[in-house]
Design brief:
The structure is a single chain. The protein has helices at about 20-35, 100-140, 145-165; strands spanning about 65-70, 75-85, 95. By secondary structure, the protein is mainly α. A three-stranded antiparallel beta sheet has the order 1-2-3. The longest helix has about 45 residues, at about 100-140. The model has no long low-confidence stretch (mean pLDDT about 80). This is Zinc finger GRF-type domain-containing protein.
């Protein structure tokens, strides 16, 4: 009990930090975070996936395989449709007319075919440009250059392999 505990407030001496230096340090910290590749990561881009009910269904939301059945209603007699064996369990299942599914599948097929044709056209254009460049290089050199001939053969072989793998 004979000890005297005293406490004093910190003074504004040169050892203590002022508000402006704290703000500057915080600004530097945020600037470092802004430059960090971990904070500015690009969001993942995933290729578009088909919905389970696009085109001809291959599986239901529940994972079941489709069954083709025939309608016997007066409104749609003998019209085919896709359904599932456990359609009466109360869950959400895919149900689609057969002809609608085929039309969706064909339009997707046509879109994909057009995409492949566009890619083939671009490859042909690149091939023509490469062949033209190689011919110009060949004309510039007076003596047959083994490197240019080998390069031409390699480009032709790569194009041939690329076209063969697309078929």
């Amino acid at each position: 009990m004979g000890q005297d505990y005293s406490y004093s407030q910190p003074s504004s001496s040169s050892n203590s930090l002022d508000m402006s230096s704290l703000l500057e340090a915080e600004a530097k910290l945020y600037a470092d975070e802004a430059e960090s590749p971990y904070c500015n990561a690009e969001p993942d881009q995933f290729p578009p996936q088909r919905e389970p009910d696009d085109g001809i269904p291959t599986a239901c939301y529940c994972g079941a395989q489709p069954v083709v059945e025939c309608s016997y209603t007066p409104k749609d007699p003998y019209k085919r449709y896709f359904t599932y064996a456990n359609v009466d369990d109360g869950d959400c299942h895919i149900w689609k007319w057969w002809d609608v599914a085929l039309m969706e599948e064909m339009s997707e097929f046509q879109r994909h075919l057009k995409q492949l044709k566009d890619q083939a056209f671009e490859c042909d254009q690149k091939l023509l440009k490469l062949q033209k460049t190689l011919c110009e290089l060949k004309k510039k050199s007076e003596t047959p250059n083994a490197f240019a001939l080998a390069l031409c053969a390699m480009v032709s072989a790569l194009v041939f392999i690329g076209r063969a793998s697309k078929k």
